[in-house]
């Protein structure tokens, strides 16, 4: 069976994708430097799948180490590149760290792929590349204009996409699928893997579940004076397991469909926008747990509203994010309870 290299495979989306790949029969080698994840995640994956992925604790910005992994596994036919630093606020404080990590690792990966004639790359990008789309570009499809990034993190995603396109232009052998995620949330239904934020969570759902668990006194809702029906920001929250399945579809397509563009881009979202207040109410309804919250001022750099037009992914990849939001929110709570022994 074909082997997929998953960089950042012990991370949040990487671990869920590894599970889905292995359940579809792929062999997986994970490379991860464990900078924002734990080696224990491998136990969770093994418990779900019944097989353990291969694992190398290396930094994929290191050519020699990454090259050694490709030598060890000559059956690698594709790579899914998740490994990256992803905290927007931290990227503003430490831009060089973000440029070094996120650009250096992709450049090194492409060099090693070229050296080993591995042709297929799936790249983990973000809807952040669209910024705040105009009203006539909502919902956002793949033709919406790319706007100047609001953070070094967002800029690394844009530059990475450009690096991939430039390299594909130079090397006809390279094929790439760029996946632009909206807001991934939730955890595997087994509660054996999930999101493990470092310190105080910056993202909404981990903050909600930690507040529900009593770790945080209350959630701050950043702004209720936006031009949206209830005044809070709107996002397209996508279940991480649905998102993981899209990666398997992308790999299947790269391996089995000849008639496709050399670089393809897909927006991965549900097609439905939910406000922060709708998420809070939905969580309370799904779990029966109250979330104490207070409205505070807007968060700098936040976008008012964005949600996906996932038609291209639906039709071309034959994929749809259709897990009901109540189930998604419940999975996040089940995971939080699991890690807190509640
Ligand atoms: C941000 C990034 C995105 C990145 C993602 C994951 C931008 C524009 N977006 O998404 O590129 O992939 O993080 O790191 O940079 N909220 C609260 N209270 C909280 C936390 C969040 O009200 O304590 C609100 C936010 O104002 C926002 C929504 O919840 O309206 C979602 O926030 P968050 O989970 O941080 O994701 P994004 O900012 O959409």
Topology:
Blueprint: E1 3-7, H1 12-23, E2 27-31, H2 41-49, E3 54-56, H3 63-72, E4 76-81, H4 88-93, H5 95-115, E5 120-126, H6 152-170, E6 175-181, E7 183-185, H7 204-212, E8 219-222, E9 234-235, E10 237-239, H8 240-256, E11 263-268, E12 274-275, H9 276-287, E13 293-296, H10 311-317, H11 325-339
Parallel strand pairs: 1-2, 1-4, 2-3, 4-5, 5-6, 6-11, 7-10, 8-13
Antiparallel strand pairs: 9-12
Helix pairs in contact: 1-2, 1-8, 3-5, 5-6, 7-11, 9-11
Bound molecules: uridine-diphosphate-N-acetylglucosamine (UD1).
Uridine-diphosphate-N-acetylglucosamine binds next to helix 7 and strand 8.
Structural overview:
With 342 residues, the chain is of the alpha/beta class. Helices cover 40% and strands 17% of the residues. β1 (3-7), α1 and β2 form a beta-alpha-beta unit. α5 (95-115) runs parallel beside α6 (152-170). The radius of gyration is 19 Å and the shape is globular. It has a domain at 3-185 and 238-269: 3-Layer(aba) Sandwich (Rossmann fold), CATH 3.40.50. It binds uridine-diphosphate-N-acetylglucosamine. Uridine-diphosphate-N-acetylglucosamine binds at residues 86, 88, 126, 128, 150-151, 154, 183, 202-204, 207, 219-222, 233, 235, 276, 299, 302-303.
